[in-house]
Amino acid sequence: MRKRKKKIAGLNGGYVMPTSFASSPKSDSGLLKVQISAPLNGSGSANAFVYSPTEPGGLGHSRSWFTYEELVEATNGFSVQNLLGEGGFGCVYKGYLPDGREIAVKQLKIGGGQGEREFKAEVEIISRIHHRHLVSLVGYCISQNQRLLVYDYVSNNNLCFHLHGEGRSVLDWATRVKVAAGAARGLAYLHEDCHPRIIHRDIKSSNILLDNNLEARVSDFGLAKLALDTNSHVTTRVMGTFGYMAPEYASSGKLTEKSDVFSFGVVLLELITGRKPVDASQPLGDESLVEWVSYESDLLTVLLLLNQP
Ligand SMILES: Nc1ncnc2c1ncn2[C@@H]1O[C@H](COP(=O)(O)OP(=O)(O)OP(=O)(O)O)[C@@H](O)[C@H]1O
Ligand SMILES: [Mg+2]
């Protein structure tokens, strides 16, 4: 087990499922149904197949769903020893498929009987996206009110842990650059090579997983939207994480891929400065990384201007 219990920093682990914009425009409605132009294999595609329990280790696409019992078995009954952590959508457990393949099972909190068709449709789409810098969705499970997602297991925790985890040695500069470039490639694939484009909606350091070679794999793309769509009684909400959210998205709900780019910019600042996006231990006014950086850069500009001959 890597990490038993993840942060619950601030509200819901920093996750924002906040303001119901009752009267806000459903501005991203045109983007709600993502479709992928087939075939979707990213350059250097890693796991370009959907696991089929009927064909052990199979390369077929015959079955991307799991029974609940299969996942109970895989995760040792969702035991606490297998718990990898908990995010805004629920707990994540490490598991093993009968052929030995390692998986991460996310038990979604969304539940409810609604949105089963939407859930299936979107999960099928996401499970067709494969790229070496994205975490592949292996399959899903729908069992009564339960919704579970099965991902490829990525072995070396996430960027947030490597940057801010207690007692961690400092990440060297070359690794930071490699992680930034890898995550950028994964994100660019979602924005530019999927049609229509996929907006991640929750880019942050904990959603950038690292493999044993410290290569970045962006996780949880499409998840925020999936949670929205399957909770059909809540249609217009802003979803994201404090400290990373683009201001125009937070204030108006207007969503474009630029919102992801803003959040990715925050990850870059995090990589460059080693500071958390929101850090309550900083002096008053300096808690937000974005505000701190803009203040520092304003100050630098003033100093440079004052130094002009
Ligand atoms: N595919 C995976 N392989 C290995 N570990 C994973 C995988 N997916 C998630 N984890 C780990 O499980 C823990 C919980 O992840 P989770 O995605 O639920 O939280 P989060 O990323 O902080 O928040 P969010 O719900 O907004 O994505 C994290 O420590 C994460 O690194
Ligand atoms: Mg996550």
TrEMBL record:
CDD domains in the record: STKc_IRAK
Membrane topology listed for this record: Single-pass membrane protein
Pfam families: PK_Tyr_Ser-Thr
EC nos: 2.7.11.1
Catalytic activity field: L-seryl-[protein] + ATP = O-phospho-L-seryl-[protein] + ADP + H(+); L-threonyl-[protein] + ATP = O-phospho-L-threonyl-[protein] + ADP + H(+)
Residues in Protein kinase domain copies: 78-309
Subcellular localization, as worded in the UniProt entry: Cell membrane
A molecular-function term among this protein's GO annotations: ATP binding
Keyword Thylakoid carried by entry: no
Key word Transport present: no
Domain of life: Eukaryota
InterPro entries: Kinase-like_dom_sf, PERK1-13-like, Prot_kinase_dom, Protein_kinase_ATP_BS, Ser-Thr/Tyr_kinase_cat_dom, Ser/Thr_kinase_AS
The entry's keywords: ATP-binding, Cell membrane, Kinase, Membrane, Nucleotide-binding, Serine/threonine-protein kinase, Transferase, Transmembrane, Transmembrane helix
GO annotations of cellular component type: plasma membrane
Residues holding ATP: 106
Enzyme class: transferase
Similarity comment text for this entry: Belongs to the protein kinase superfamily.
The protein's name: non-specific serine/threonine protein kinase
Organism of this sequence: Escallonia herrerae
Highest classification ranks of the organism: Eukaryota, Viridiplantae, Streptophyta, Embryophyta, Tracheophyta
